[in-house]
Design a protein that fits this description.
The structure is a single chain. By secondary structure, the chain is mainly beta. Among the domains are: 1-109, lipopolysaccharide transport protein A fold (Sandwich); 118-200, no CATH class. The chain is built from 5 helices and 45 strands. The strands form 2 sheets. The protein has a 27-stranded mixed barrel. The protein has a 15-stranded antiparallel β-sheet that branches. The chain is elongated, with a radius of gyration of 35 Å. The protein starts with 11 loop residues before the first helix and ends with a strand.
């Protein structure tokens, strides 16, 4: 491994590390048939005894990417064998790679014998200590081997094996009859183990996931990692739940030429007939597919008219919420799941200096419903936007928007809406740029064509309007002795002009310019002398002069306060004037320091609050959350709780403790959650209580064991 006939020139970095040694000591070079340097032999004192060259004191053997040091070395010129004795250290680059007390190297055969033997993988910290080792080409044959990533002197965990084999080129380690020990206590035995000792991706079995559940029985999942190329890999994970059924999921990752990752996850789990009948589940099979991918400059080039384009996909289609319960937590975390609403998005855009074209699609799934046949989907939406540009005179601009939206579903009315908007904008600064005002006449038109209306008797809608938008805003900045302050005040008034409206428009559609609107907004920010934000405040209030049902819109008020770099306070309130009370509110308190984190939050949303599916605003909610995490010297303690104070039950609570050092981690937590389950009667809540044990022998083994229902 150290001495090869094809050796090249010594790297400059290696020579720099020993300038005084190399320049001042005797040096012997061995050349191959093609006059290339096979190795260089250096020592403080060199003696010649017939066919032997004996080096004593700071012996150094240099070859290719390695150099070896020892207190003594004997080179037999007839057999081509070098014996290094006492404190043998081999270096790769600038780091120690291998240690031994005695090493024998045969130059012509690329063979060596090491006794005792020590090897360490530089990135992971994994080391191997063996009574002896034979090296032939690229493989080490080990006897009585010990391996770990902990301290060499007293490792927390170690694997002891009677025999082993390490392939240096593939960074692959095999051991026979290994025993996993915590300190000196054996806890597991395997007839054979084989695993990567480096960070290169290799195909093979990953460590299994084992658990036990009252309802599901024994849980066993065996991930299989497949990495045939450096640009894609796959993790295939079959699983069995002895009381419930069998299934699998498959996670695929592909890297494109822009280093963007295409992520695909899909799977299926089938319940047994007995499990299906016991819990009266809506679906016997839980299946799904998830996809994530984003990419810029997919088709365009810098010299094209459209100089930029982009694709974004975040798609999650599953049969029901139980699909996530039988898959990995990562699958659920990556989905756009707000409450019970799962959203999938697909978009593509083309952009030039003047024009923008977008193609979008959104699909919503309410996982608490047995069917989403009545949920309106936007598939697809097409948008054209003409970038704002000046026209005729200074400060006079225009833009143009045209869009088509297809609202579709299997059951219920469907609609295709076309919209066009042409605003002209004149802006002017007043009072030395303290105030900016603008006047904008807007021409707007929309057409809605209905289908599948059945008994609703909806008539196709036509609406055209000419309205005016007057706006003004003021930006002020002032620096005081101890802080800085910025203030923005704005107003916007919409005045209807001529309009023409025919046909039906359901509540789903908004018609700009059909009523007088007045919007007041304000925001202010306080900074310290280092421009760190201390406090922010935003407020918005809308007025509708011609609305019979609602003359004043919701008041929106948000305040954030940062105190002493540790405390953060947030209050966000939506107040309904018509109801005379708060429709939605969020309050949060957060404390962070080096070893302590605490959070408290309160969220309320009334049933009458305005729904906005795009922003995830829908449904009633009343709950508080609190969490605490404390890091001690050798372990971490944490707890979380979520409580629905209107329904008077704990949505979730957990408490746990974990500890982690460089080579070992252990954790235990108790979790109690209320999860929805889709039955033939609809969504029903089910209690889930379990204990989760986490054990990690870094970097070899990481396994979670779940005990509960």
């Amino acid at each position: 491994m150290f001495l090869r006939k094809s050796a090249s020139l010594i790297t400059l970095a290696t020579l720099i590390m020993m300038p005084s040694i190399i320049n001042a000591r005797p040096s012997i070079k061995h050349f191959g048939k093609n006059q290339e340097v096979v190795f260089e032999f250096l020592a403080d004192d060199v003696e010649y005894d017939k066919a032997q060259i004996i080096g004593k004191g700071n012996v150094t053997i240099i070859n290719l990417d390695y150099f070896v040091t020892a207190n003594k070395a004997i080179y037999d010129t007839q057999t081509g064998e070098i014996t290094l004795i006492d404190s043998v250290n081999a270096y790769k680059g600038n780091s120690l790679y291998l240690k031994a007390q005695k090493v024998k190297i045969k130059i012509q055969e690329d063979y060596s014998f090491l006794e005792p033997f020590y090897l360490q993988e530089l990135q992971s910290g994994l080391w191997v200590d063996s009574k002896s080792a034979e090296f032939d080409g690229s493989v080490y044959q080990l006897e009585d081997a010990t391996l770990s990533a902990c301290s060499v002197h007293n490792p927390i965990w170690k694997i002891q094996a009677s025999q082993g084999e390490y392939d240096a080129n593939k960074e692959w380690l095999k051991v026979w009859h290994p025993r996993l020990c915590v300190y000196d206590i054996p806890i597991l035995y395997f007839p054979y183990l084989s695993f990567s000792a480096g960070y290169q991706r290799k195909s093979g079995l990953l460590y299994p996931i084992v658990g036990n559940s009252r309802d599901d029985g024994l849980i066993y999942s065996q991930p299989i990692f497949v990495a045939p190329n450096n640009w894609w890999d796959m993790t295939f994970s079959p699983q069995i739940r002895t009381k419930r059924g069998v299934g699998f999921y498959d996670e695929i990752r592909v890297v494109d030429d822009k280093n963007q990752i295409f992520w695909l996850n899909f799977g299926i789990f089938r319940n047994t007939d007995s499990y299906q009948n016991t819990y009266n589940l809506e679906n016997q099979e839980h299946y799904g597919v998830q996809l994530e991918y984003s990419r810029k400059d997919l088709l365009t080039k810098s010299h094209n008219y459209f100089r930029e384009d982009g694709l974004y996909a975040d798609i999650s289609q599953i049969s029901d919420i139980d699909y996530f319960k039988t898959q990995t937590e990562r699958a659920r975390e990556r989905a756009d799941l707000q409450g019970s609403l799962l959203t999938s998005r697909l978009s593509y855009f083309l952009k030039s200096d003047n024009d923008y074209i977008g193609l979008y699609g959104r699909y919503y799934s309410d996982l608490e419903k047995t069917s989403n046949a009545e949920t309106l989907q936007t598939l697809p939406e097409i948008q054209y936007h003409r970038q704002i540009d000046s026209i005729l005179v200074d400060n006079f601009y225009y833009s143009f928007d045209y869009g088509v939206k297809n609202y579709t579903r299997p059951i219920g009315y469907r609609a295709i809406q076309q919209e066009a908007r042409l605003p002209f904008i004149y802006t002017q600064s007043l009072f030395d740029d303290y105030i900016n005002v603008s006047v904008s006449p807007v021409f707007y038109g929309t057409m809605v064509n209905y289908s599948n209306t059945s008994s609703l008797h909806l008539e196709n809608g036509r609406y055209f309007s000419h309205h005016y938008v007057f706006s003004g805003d003021m930006d002020l900045v002032k620096k005081y002795t101890n802080f800085g302050h910025t203030l923005n005040l704005g107003l916007q008034y919409t005045l209807p002009g001529a309009d023409n409206k025919k046909g039906s428009f359901t509540d789903f559609f908004e018609l700009p310019g059909d009523r007088q609107e007045f919007l007041l907004s304000g925001s202010q920010y306080f900074y310290d002398l280092e421009n760190v934000l201390l406090l922010s405040h935003r407020i918005n209030q809308a007025f509708y002069f011609e609305s019979a049902n609602q003359r004043v819109g919701e008041l929106q008020n948000e305040v954030q306060y940062f105190y002493n770099y540790r405390w953060r306070f947030l209050s966000s309130i939506f107040y309904s004037h018509s109801r005379g009370k708060i429709s939605e509110a969020t309050h949060q308190v957060e404390y962070k320091e080096d070893f302590l984190t605490g959070t408290f939050s309160h969220f309320i949303r009334e049933q009458f609050a305005r729904n906005d599916i795009v922003k995830g605003r829908f449904g009633e909610a009343n709950y508080i959350n609190a969490g605490l995490k404390k890091e001690f010297e050798n372990f971490n303690l944490y707890a979380n709780v979520g409580y629905d104070y209107k329904e008077n039950y704990f949505k979730t609570w957990q408490i746990g403790i974990d500890t982690e050092i460089r080579c070992f981690a252990f954790g235990i937590k108790y979790v109690n959650t209320i999860n929805p389950v889709l039955t033939t009667r609809g969504a029903e809540a089910r209690d889930d209580k379990h204990v989760l044990l986490t054990v990690k022998f870094i970097p070899l083994l990481s396994s979670d064991v779940k005990i509960g229902n």
